[in-house]
Fold this sequence. Notes:
The protein has 310 residues and is α+β, with helices and mostly antiparallel strands. The chain has helices spanning 24-48, 51-77, 92-120, 127-152, 156-185, 190-217, 227-235, 270-285, and strands spanning 5-7, 240-250, 256-264, 289-296.
Amino acid sequence: MGHSHSHSHDGGHGHAHLPGGAGDGTILVAVVVNLALTGAQIIGGYVADSTALIADGVHNLSDALALVLAFGARRLARRPASPDMSYGWGRAEIVAAFVNYIALIAVSVWLGIEALGRLIEPPQVAGGLVMALAGFALLVDMATAALVWRASKESVNIRAAFLHNLADAAVSVAVILGGALIWAFGWNLADPVLTLLISAVILWHIGREIGPVMRMLMLAAPAGVDHAALAGAMAGVEGVAGAHHLHLWQIDERRTALSAHLVMREGADPVLAVRRVKALLRRDFGIDHATIETERAGEACGDDHAGHRH
């Protein structure tokens, strides 16, 4: 039949390329500090009867969970691939992130409903306690951002957590402002209004980030890749007449995989053509993991049940 199968290997087949243990200690410290802050804010929010403070605590919890996911992913990604997990463990963080986002959506909706009820009858809020805990949160947010800043340069997940911390700092400033309005002028309405705004901020963050996670879970092609241009580039390689059965998906956030059939021109060397295509994929599209099958022009495709000829 003249079929040849070829697989590209990146040295550690199925491994995500992550640095060793760099930054793990600081990430753990950041997680512990953020969890402690979350507990203080939620307890303080109940004591002060402030949903805005509870919402800020939940937002900080989301950052702590994001850091936990990033830390766990770094650890799991270092595990070697196996026959049962041939791509390694990189996708574990994608599943965990999706679950985390769904939980945060539910919490944000609950906070929003609670705040809407308080708009009708604003409760008496302890503005001084709200300001104190929000000020403490602001310091912790900035300290956490400083702790993970270096690690954020080498991991997109940790970079997202770093950006979340900066956003949390802005939210804490808003809560301090709300506490000041309540303390100085007795404007208890500021608390549910701020709660709604914070819930909206959380949902906005999730809306921006859940899309790529969904795409990876659904084995979609990386965003921004022109499928037609990719197929055309492969078909333009010397010795190749066309490309079909092209599948492109993300293994995880760092690795993209491709499988395709190449139709060879008469007399072309399939081994040499596959090498050229893989070099093209690495150079122009950043695809290092490719599985390619070759066929002779005019013969039926082995994977085409209709038996069409190419």
